[in-house]
Amino acid sequence: MAKYYSIPMLRYGLTLEQIKKDPESSYAELVLWYSCRIANEYSVPIHIVDRCGEEYNSDNDPYYFMLKNEWGFSNIK
Fold first, then answer.
1. Of 14, 25, 35, 38, which is most buried with the most CB atoms under 10 A?
2. What is the DSSP string of 13-51?
3. Using one digit for the tens of pLDDT, what is the confidence trace for 60-75?
């Protein structure tokens, strides 16, 4: 995987040292960059949820609360 994605990662500004040290995080950054590029190209909003720090679920995730309030859902699973 690292061989295939190394050139795109370097193109987006990561260094070889960063990629070698943490390939999973480097790949995640690449996916974010691609997602943002596509959203910008099509002028659509994008919602990125970082779930690395703690476990989120429908009881503690602010995104779920916003969906419930904005769309009037009585329950979200």
1. 14
2. T--HHHHHH-HHHHHHHHHHHHHHHHHHHTT--------
3. 777 777 777 777 777 7
Residues spanned by the domain of 29? 1-46
Residues comprising the chain, all counted: 77
Same domain, 3 and 37: yes
Token pair 């995640």 is found at 28
Same-domain check for residues 38 and 60: no
- 18 and 54 part of one domain: no
Instruction: Tell me the pLDDT tens digit for each residue of 6-65.
Output: 888 888 888 889 888 988 888 888 888 889 899 999 999 888 877 667 777 777 777 777
Same domain, 8 and 41: yes
Overall pTM > 0.70 = no
